[in-house]
Design goal:
50% of the residues lie in helices and 20% in strands. By secondary structure, it is of the alpha+beta class. The chain has a six-stranded antiparallel beta sheet, with helices on both faces. Strands 1-3-2 form a three-stranded antiparallel beta sheet.
Length: 246
Amino acid sequence: MAADAVKSAKRALEILEVFARHRRPLALKEVLDELGYPTSSGSALMKSLVALGYLDYDRERRTYFPTMRIAALGNWVPGVLFGDGPLLGGLEELNRKTGETVILAVQSDLHAQYVHVIHSAEPLQLRVPPGTLRPLARSGLGLVLLSAKRDAEIERLRRRINAAGEGAGQSREDMMARVTEVRARGYAFSRNAISPGVGVIAAALPKGPFGRTFAVGVAGRVASLEEKQDHIVGELRGLIHRLDPH
């Protein structure tokens, strides 16, 4: 029973994510084909979301679309996380000034999770959605998040990461050497760590609400980042200063 409940919850959220990707009314078949769900259980779940007020069903066109109840569920989150300060505007400005994709990430257990993404205008750039997870120990944003922690906490995480197979068996010495380098430079430059030819220059932001640490990264083709490294690092430092001038 518990496993079925977890599966249903996962599928309900995946259905809502389909609408977030397409941003238009969708027929039942379109949703189920994209997710690979069986027709019987998928149809029942969609009808349940309609009954609960999260989806609207257009009988004439036979399409579904999220209701404003979905928007209301999360509209308070940006205000709590980012407040009325300059963070979101600063990320937009960073995107404009660098011409690259800008990513805001937080720690989610053993991963860095993207919570806000502003894509580059270049059509050939890698597209990553909010919610994307990257290993803490093997990504630039993850390494920045680790570097903001105490050494003892980093060691505890390193043991968990290795036990979960997420860290390629990194030794304490190797991890701390990388963390020390990030702390000394004030930023991380990760090349080809997750996707060939793609990198990220990332830095930690001042402590956010509830003591959470956010990391901001400028991502793009490694060659482009290398060419603009000094400019990108300068813009990152400017953003950090505006958020915490003291």
